[in-house]
Amino acid sequence: MSQAIANTLEPSRVGAAHASGTLSIRQVRKQYEVKGEVLPVLDGINIDIKPGEFVSIVGSSGCGKSTLLRLIIGLEDDYQGDILLDGTRVHGTSLKRGIVFQEHRLLPWLTVEQNIGIALENSPLSEPERRKAVQKHVELVGLQGFETAYPHQLSGGMSQRVAIARGLVNRPEILLLDEPFGALDALTRAKLQDELQRIWQAEGITMILVTHDVEEAVFLGDKVIVMEPRPGRIKRIVPVDVPHPRKRTDADLNRIRVDVLREFNQLPPDELVEEIPHRAQDLIFAW
């Protein structure tokens, strides 16, 4: 698969000249045929995403989160309903829509700057402009000095930084993130969550994150879409009205996290849930 599809965003949280990155999903249904039987995967999905918004999608395995991302990126066209980017129906892959996967998918024989630059293969930019764009994104993800390093010389977190830079270098309108930190240890994951928050604010791009991690979803998202499985439906959309940049010890974030966790029956009813003391929060989130 061409890495050109690894790019997709650009709204205007930072005052971009145009409000691109508006995504409208209308009554989307998707099904597969398994052993001669129809298996519904998505049923009646309706989502509106504004330019520059960060949206998190959470749900148990089998709720269709990754299938929905595949439809948005354009890897599959066989579905019912409409997926509209800036009013135009999504059809096939495009440089306007990029994706970062759980596995960084770097080419081992290419350096950091070459792995980022491969996303510009089909770009109209001149060679000097490409070099400038690559260097800008190396700096954006904090990898100055590693331009000529190969993937085997990088940590897992550094490799994911390269994947994020590759996904942004084409200046897409929407960047999709499919469990991008799922394979990382807790400390690296927390650091990259902070970095992604910084990059998102700097770039002003629409981002859609699929994750199993409720804390991650709440920490990063302007809203959290909770999905339920078999077939995948939207159970609830939870707004996260906490200004960025955020801190993990924020009491409002913790209350929203508890609220979302209740949707998965991971917590007892309200009257049995005690507020986590600030000192305990500091211990839990001081990564």
From TrEMBL:
Q: Which CDD domains match?
A: ABC_NrtD_SsuB_transporters
Single GO MF annotation: ATP binding
The ABC transporter domain sits at 23-256
UniProt key word Transport: yes
Q: Does the keyword Transport apply?
A: yes
Q: What is the protein name given in its UniProt record?
A: ABC transporter ATP-binding protein
Which keywords does this chain's UniProt record carry? Answer: ATP-binding, Cell membrane, Membrane, Nucleotide-binding, Transport
Q: Which segment of the chain is annotated as a signal peptide?
A: none
One Pfam assignment: ABC_tran
Give the top-rank taxon of the lineage listed in the UniProt record for this protein: Bacteria
Family the entry assigns? Belongs to the ABC transporter superfamily.
- Organism from which the protein derives: Uliginosibacterium silvisoli
